[in-house]
Each structure stands twice: as C-alpha cells, then as structure tokens.
Amino acid sequence: MPSTSEFDSRPVYSADGELFFQARESGADFVYRINEDGTGRRKVMPRPIERFQGVSPDGRWVIALAAVPDEDSTRAVLAYSTRDGSIRRICQGICWAVWSQDGTLFNLTLPDRATFAIPLRRGKEFPPIPSPGVKSLADLRTLKGVPAAAATDSMPRSGSTVYFVPHSTSYAFSRQTVRRNIYQIPIPR
Fold this sequence. Notes:
Helices cover 3% and strands 35% of the residues. It is mostly beta strands.
C-alpha cells in the first residue's frame, strides 16, 4: 500500500494500479497520483479542487468538483485529462459522476438524487452529454439508451460512492442514517 499523509483522502485505484487521491497543499486541495509501490507521487493537475470524485478505469481522466472562474455557475464537475490537461465539463453545479470498473457505464447522480447509468460505446470514455455540461434531468432524458431512475430514498445521495456490478446496471452504495432521541432531564435549581 502506498504511503500518503494523514491529510490525503478519497483514494481510488486505476486499472494499472496507480492510486489517485485528494491531498491538501498550502490550504487548497488537489488531485495526486502515486505508484502502487509508493514512488512517483505527483500532482495530476495544477488547478485546486473542492472534491475528488473518481478516475476512469484506464487512468486517463479524473473527475472533480472545482471552482469555475468568470462564469455564472461558480462550481462545476469537471473531467481533467491526465495526458494533455484538457478539461471537459460534466455538469453545471454539483453532481456525482463515476465510471463502472469495467468502463462500460458512466454513472451520473444529480442533486435531486436521480441516478443514471449511461452505457458507453466501445472506445468512448464519456456519454454524449452537452458540451456545457448537464444542467438538468431534461439533458439526460434526451439521450438514447439512458435508463432514467426515479429519485427515491433507495437512490444514492449526490456525493455517495457508487460501485457497479461488472457488465450490469446493478450497483451498490452506502447510506448513513442517524437516529436520535431527545430526553428531558430535570436540572435542579
């Protein structure tokens, strides 16, 4: 297991064994990668991020929520190429995006918890989403072959890590539930 610092978080392995993770540097967060043997720690991109979401199975793209300067939307979920530094917008504002491990599906969860498992064509890393990114459910419903999942309590919340069953649209995620009781305790005067 590669050695990282106590401030590193959200580790994700690519298919070739590199570990990608979010790390804090000079008060800002960035995406880093490190070899499986712990060598070669390097920053994936120069721009700071808010939240690292995932890496494509081949390690060519990372997805993160980041600030978007000089635009109406101050934040967006962006895909960054680890090869040439190009950027592709996934959605306006906040959503959660991740690939299935086998690279056949692209999962997109919108803030209203509507989740889409979008089949990818062979050799394609992204579904045909609009170039300015997904703005609403309507953008996804126009895509052919996209199963529209209704938002229910059984859907993952935006920000949940979703794990796909290989070669399937089935997935798993964790959900935390907090239950509390309030007791009245008399305080002597």
